[in-house]
Amino acid sequence: MLRREVRLRKEYLYRKAQEDRLRTIEEKKQKLKSALDDNRLLPTEVRKDALDLQKLLEFDDEGGDGVSSHMDDEYKWAGVEDPKIMVTTSRDPSSRLKMFAKEMKLMFPGSQRMNRGTHEIPTLVHACKANNVTDLVIVHETRGQPDGLVVCHLPFGPTAYFTLYNVVSDILKYLFPVPKEDSKRVITFANAEDFISFRHHTYKKKDHKNVELTEVGPRFEMKLYMIKLGTLENENTAEVEWRHHAYTRTAKKRKFLSVE
Q1: Would the pLDDT of 184 be above 70?
Q2: pLDDT tens figures, 188-231
Q3: Contact between 184 and 200 (Cβ < 8 Å)
């Protein structure tokens, strides 16, 4: 079983590396084509490979549109099969963290909550993979206050790390199944200046013009600080796809999720 997981992981990383290499070549080809069409000087980054790229341009056609990417492997069944989510906590959780995990479990349709006990992260991930779990959600706390959320998409990743604030949750969206037509629940992820506000409501129609919203909780703010391409048991070796660098002069001014 372990050898099979290692082999599948290597195949996935190889496909992603190939995808990155082909994307770089495609970008250079487009720059070369644009320069030739506009009769401009070639950009410096494509001059060395210009002749080889020009030969490749001869074989380009519209058939390359819509090629698959590693995202197709990560979320290829999204919208086809309902996600199977496992919710758990950090070790030795407080009663407040247990209650928060219970609320998270009730929030995601079809999810299950597992007591962490003394289980290590690799053991949890292997158990989830063996039971076809699509996402592992782990909530953390500091001094009894829930302040961390990790969403690990299985079997190959990515893994997103969030800091939670004001806890009174392509990675968040696919935690939920396709909504039913008669559903009365509304889940809101509102992004404002890179803080993701989470709200959970139910609604009912009072008449044909008015709708009454009722907040059922939990509510909190999230801030993404890291995305890794691997899963949690490979946390120390997985490639970091994106990281928020807090200790730089412009960190407070820059916005990554918000539209400028």
Answers
A1: yes
A2: 888 888 888 998 999 988 888 888 989 887 888 998 888 887 88
A3: no
pLDDT (tens digit per residue) in 102-114: 988 988 888 999 9
- Contact predicate 200/218, CB 8 Å: yes
3-state secondary structure of 88: strand
CATH 3.40.50.10480 assigned to 78-243: yes
As to burial, measured by CB atoms within 10 angstroms (0-12 exposed, 13-18 middle, 19+ buried), residue 54 is middle
Q: How many residues does the chain have?
A: 260
Nearest Cα to 144, choosing from 93, 191, 110?
93
Q: Is the dihedral of CA 122, 124, 128, 130 positive or negative?
A: positive
For the chain, what are the domain ranges? 2-67, 78-243
Give one DSSP letter per residue of 131-167, joined into a string: TT-SEEEEEEEETTEEEEEEEEETTT--EEEEEEES-
195-205 and 185-192: which strand pairing?
antiparallel
For residue 171 the two structure tokens come to: 């990675």
| pLDDT score recorded for residue 131 | 92
**Which segments within 7-144 are labelled E, that is strand?**
85-89, 112-113, 135-142
* Closest residue by Cα to residue 69 from 20, 141, 10: 20
- Name the phi and psi angles at 220, rounded to 5: -165, 170
Kindly state the tokens that stand for 226: 């890291």
Q: What is the pLDDT of residue 87?
A: 96
**Packed helices 2-37 and 50-57: angle between N→C axes, nearest 10 degrees:** 90
State pLDDT tens for residues 31-42: 888 888 888 888
